[in-house]
Amino acid sequence: MAACFAVIFTSTRTEGDNGYAEAAERMDLLVREQPGFLGVESVRGAGGFGITVSYWQSEAAILAWRQHPEHRLIQQRGREQWYSAFHTRVCKVEREYRFGP
């Protein structure tokens, strides 16, 4: 992967699904259609803490996704219903190293 940007979203979930799984699936499909989207990695522990890292070609692409109308609605639901806390960081990826496939 050449130089790109990463959005690191860490969060703590509230109890219960409350429609979260369905919304997450929809957001995964929608984000993959966004110009400049390169990929995503995500994991959530049993205690509710999770981390999702999405990769983008540019900061403009990140801002466009942030302002996407459907994504905005889901963000609001997250604040109201699904997360007790979250933190978003945007970073420039200068290089990467790999081991394995």
UniProtKB/TrEMBL annotation:
Q: Does the keyword Oxidoreductase apply?
A: yes
Q: Where would I find the ABM domain in this sequence? A: 7-76
Coiled-coil stretches noted in the UniProt entry, renumbered to this chain: none
Q: Which InterPro entries match?
A: ABM_dom (IPR007138), Dimeric_a/b-barrel (IPR011008), Jasmonate_Hydroxylase-like (IPR052936)
Q: Does the keyword Oxidoreductase apply?
A: yes
A GO molecular function held by the record: monooxygenase activity
Q: Keyword set for this entry?
A: Monooxygenase, Oxidoreductase
User: What single Pfam family name could you report for this chain, choosing any that match?
Assistant: ABM
Q: What is this protein called?
A: Antibiotic biosynthesis monooxygenase
Which species?
Answer: Pseudomonas tensinigenes
